[in-house]
């Protein structure tokens, strides 16, 4: 009974590691350490192959950092490792060095190996990696193979989640590049066009009407100052948010900068804002940026108000303007960055609601559940 409880505890630890929001390498390390303990092995490892014939990741258990360093580069896809990758089936051997597929190759600093148990990590029909244990006194049993196969299934979940996370990061990066292009176009290109026009006018007028030429140059100076302020606001918004001073203070700083760049007053008020998980803080900050961008550049309003408030269970952000408003149904939910805001909110289990009508201003309301720090 005690052995079954130990097994259940280790399996539970691995399942919880996969389900929690932990770095994938940390999850895989938990899985490998648990597999090593469950199988009663001296060593265990999990390898994820790359496209160059080696391994992109090779997580080990039973070796110190000094031993790993002495062994040298990650292994290549050879011998039994290659067999597990190609064959997509488990291999249980009393002595791996006696198997002709072993090939006899080990780095000089690598510990000697005998009993071996390896299983592929499968994502559907695809082999995502391999997990194996080595050096168990008396050899590995069928029960050990069942347990290692179970752990390989958990490793597959972790690796699949990691791939989805990387895909989402690439999508987010593409969205950020699109936002950068849009903001730079809006903030700078129009100003540069005006600067060029005024400069040409000044060059024509300088000899025949110096007074008008001077006025044109003064206009150029003002436009350059405005372009500089807007560009600074864009850069400030694109930089990773440093929220160490708190969400409200960071929003107040950005709102002041963006408001001055557009010549619009922006107020920021806070009430009962609970401590937030850093991931939630960043999402709220980015939604506020997008909503402020819309209000300052497209609403035509004279005032914009940002309000953040909360309770122990949820936090609310509202960005309101007194501008021209619009019909939300007319943009299909995707215009003016609304889809981007909704995606950011959804990533932290939040929701975005837009209230607007022609001539009645706009309110963007974000609600997110509070995650404990």
Give your account of this protein's structure.
It contains nine helices and ten strands. The model has no long low-confidence stretch (mean pLDDT 78). A hairpin with a 5-residue loop joins strand 1 (43-49) and strand 2 (55-61). 30% of the residues are buried. It starts with a helix and ends with a strand. It is of the alpha+beta class. The protein has helices spanning 2-19, 24-39, 65-71, 79-87, 142-205, 210-238, 247-262, 278-298, 338-347; strands at 43-49, 55-61, 91-93, 116-123, 126-134, 265-271, 303-310, 314-321, 351-356, 362-369. Helix 2 packs antiparallel against helix 5, helix 6 runs antiparallel to helix 7 and helix 8 (278-298) packs antiparallel against helix 9 (338-347).
Q: Can you give the mean pLDDT?
A: 78
Strand percentage lies at 15-25%
Helical stretch count? 9
CATH-assigned homologous superfamily of the largest domain: GAF domain
Principal-axis shape: elongated
Q: Which secondary-structure class do the elements indicate? A: alpha+beta
- Report the CATH architecture of the largest domain: 2-Layer Sandwich
* Major β-sheet annotation: 5 strands, antiparallel
Low-pLDDT regions:
none
Into how many domains do the coordinates divide? 2
CATH class of the largest domain reads Alpha Beta
CA-CA gap between termini: 38 Å
Q: Output the radius of gyration.
A: 30 Å
Number of strands: 10
How are the strands of the largest sheet arranged?
Answer: 2-1-5-4-3
Could you tell me the CATH topology label of the largest domain. Answer: Beta-Lactamase
Run of helices and strands: HHEEHHEEEHHHEHEEHEE
Helix content: 40-55%
């Amino acid at each position: 009974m005690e052995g079954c409880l130990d097994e259940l505890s280790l399996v539970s630890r691995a399942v919880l590691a996969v389900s929690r929001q932990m770095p994938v390498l940390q999850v895989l390390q938990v899985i490998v350490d648990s597999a090593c303990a469950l199988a009663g092995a001296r060593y265990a490892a999990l390898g994820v192959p790359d496209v160059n014939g080696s391994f992109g990741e090779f997580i080990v258990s039973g070796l110190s950092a000094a031993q790993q360093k002495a062994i040298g580069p990650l292994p290549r896809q050879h011998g039994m490792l290659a067999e597990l990758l190609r064959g997509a089936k488990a291999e249980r051997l009393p002595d791996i060095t006696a198997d002709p597929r072993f090939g006899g190759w080990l780095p000089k600093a690598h510990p000697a190996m005998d009993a071996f148990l390896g299983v592929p990590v499968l994502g559907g029909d695809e082999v995502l990696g391999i997990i194996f244990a080595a050096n168990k006194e008396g050899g590995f049993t069928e029960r050990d193979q069942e347990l290692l196969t179970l752990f390989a299934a958990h490793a597959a979940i972790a690796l699949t989640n990691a791939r989805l996370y990387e895909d989402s990061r690439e999508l987010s990066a593409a969205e950020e590049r699109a936002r950068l292009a849009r903001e730079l176009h809006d903030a700078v290109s129009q100003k540069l066009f005006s600067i060029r026009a005024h400069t040409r006018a000044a060059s024509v007028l300088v000899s025949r009407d110096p007074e008008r030429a001077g006025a044109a140059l003064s206009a150029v100076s003002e436009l350059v100052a405005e372009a500089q302020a807007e560009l600074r606001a864009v850069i400030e918004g694109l930089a990773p948010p440093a929220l160490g001073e708190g969400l409200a203070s960071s929003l107040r700083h950005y709102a002041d900068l963006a408001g001055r760049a557009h010549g619009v007053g922006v107020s920021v008020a806070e009430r009962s804002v609970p401590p937030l998980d850093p991931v939630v803080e960043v999402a709220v900050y980015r939604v506020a940026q997008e909503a402020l961008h819309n209000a300052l550049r497209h609403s035509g309003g004279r005032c914009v108000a940002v309000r953040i408030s909360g309770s122990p269970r949820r936090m609310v952000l509202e960005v309101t303007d007194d501008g021209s408003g619009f019909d939300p149904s007319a943009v299909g939910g995707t215009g003016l960055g609304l889809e981007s805001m909704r995606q950011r909110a959804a990533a932290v289990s939040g929701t975005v609601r837009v209230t607007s009508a022609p001539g009645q201003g706009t309110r963007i309301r974000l609600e997110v559940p509070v995650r404990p720090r």
